[in-house]
């Protein structure tokens, strides 16, 4: 058995092969300078820690100024905007110093905190318009501040502000469906490869935010009065339908990427299985969101996203199993039916594609020998 490892390709050769296969278009993106760091990890950790320590001292000084103007929200907003501007300038400095990057990140997070607190203090309200302003502010930071972690965090801030905007607007349970459509549109878009420094952290943050907003809707019925109207009772069905739409669209894209016609037998089996799983998501909430992340992660060979999706699937199924408003017999029947569906799907796929199963087994054996 030949267990030699495949020859590694240079980035230019890999991009050329992708161009020939019509998978990507345009010129090869510039290499990310973040991956060219040669310092040992423990030195980078100490530099990052010192950056946060320096930022804490700066925050203490700013906190003294804040205490002097605690009754003036507009002053707090200006302090927050000034700190975010300082962070923007620090991120724009040449070089790749870990101390500077972590210091700028801490300054920006503190500035966002001052901005949000001052906004609530100035408007004397927690209505939907406040969260809309926060959403616009976070989107602005995501676009113009060029740092991977910063863009990930500001994207989360934008999604959470949109979540509370819809909550305050009495449109409960719909935000996770909109996030699912955004996840589907961004991960399958070719622009993700053209602008990875901007869109990749946003894509990861949207995937994580999808699970957070999916789980957040479980407490909507506890946090709000049932007299809010139709959206409180049926809004989660609208959101779940949007998630199912994103899952079905992703399934169609995967089928087309495998060069199957939509009227072929494998495509019909895959779509029927996806539709049945979408039906289960109305009974077991969160199932479609986790499966959407798993499907995207498996298609892109992304282990991080795959691990998050599997953990989310286990969490949502466990949450459904321990719900008290549904009888144990009913939940057992649902979970048993779901398991039988997955086993039947695997059996049909193994019968339709025996060569794929044997190839997978050979890859696993070679990996075990390596």
TrEMBL record:
The chain crosses the membrane at residues 42-66, 73-93, 99-120, 132-150, 170-190, 202-224, 236-255, 267-298, 304-322, 329-349. The keyword Transmembrane helix applies. It comes from the Bacteria. It holds the Pfam family DUF4401. Coiled coil: none annotated. Keywords: Membrane, Transmembrane, Transmembrane helix. Residues 40-351 form the DUF4401 domain. InterPro entries: DUF4401 (IPR025513). It comes from Undibacterium seohonense. The lineage of its organism: Bacteria, Pseudomonadati, Pseudomonadota, Betaproteobacteria, Burkholderiales. This is DUF4401 domain-containing protein.
């Amino acid at each position: 058995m030949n267990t030699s490892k495949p020859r590694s390709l240079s980035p230019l050769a890999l991009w050329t092969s992708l161009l020939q296969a019509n998978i990507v278009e345009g010129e090869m993106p510039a290499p990310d300078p973040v991956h060219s760091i040669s310092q040992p990890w423990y030195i980078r950790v100490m530099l990052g820690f010192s950056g946060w320590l320096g930022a804490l001292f700066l925050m203490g000084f700013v906190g003294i100024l804040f205490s002097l103007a605690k009754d003036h929200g507009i002053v707090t907003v200006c302090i927050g905007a000034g700190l975010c501007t300082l962070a923007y300038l620090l991120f724009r400095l040449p070089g790749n110093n870990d101390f500077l990057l972590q210091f700028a990140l801490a300054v920006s997070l503190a500035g966002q905190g001052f901005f949000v607190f001052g906004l609530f203090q100035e408007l004397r309200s927690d209505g939907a318009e406040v969260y809309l302003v926060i959403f616009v502010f976070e989107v602005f930071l995501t676009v113009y501040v060029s740092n991977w972690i910063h863009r990930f965090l500001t994207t989360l801030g934008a999604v959470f502000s949109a979540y509370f905007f819809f909550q305050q607007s009495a449109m409960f349970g719909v935000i996770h469906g909109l996030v699912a459509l955004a996840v589907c549109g961004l991960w399958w878009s070719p622009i993700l490869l053209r602008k990875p420094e901007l869109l990749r952290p946003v894509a990861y943050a949207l995937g994580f935010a999808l699970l957070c907003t999916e789980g957040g809707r479980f407490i909507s019925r506890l946090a709000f009065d049932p007299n809010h109207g139709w959206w409180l009772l049926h809004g989660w069905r609208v959101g779940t339908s949007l998630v199912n739409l994103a899952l079905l669209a992703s399934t169609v894209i995967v089928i087309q990427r495998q060069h199957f016609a939509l009227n072929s037998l494998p495509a019909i089996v895959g779509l029927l299985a996806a539709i049945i799983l979408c039906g289960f998501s109305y009974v077991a909430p969160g199932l479609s969101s986790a499966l959407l992340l798993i499907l995207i992660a498996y298609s892109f060979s992304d282990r991080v996203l795959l691990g998050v999706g599997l953990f989310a699937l286990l969490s949502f199924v466990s949450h459904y199993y321990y719900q008290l408003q549904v009888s144990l017999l009913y939940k057992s029947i649902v979970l048993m039916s779901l398991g039988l569906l997955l086993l039947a799907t695997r059996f049909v796929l193994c019968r339709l594609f025996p060569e794929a199963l044997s190839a997978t087994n050979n890859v696993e054996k070679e990996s075990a020998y390596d």
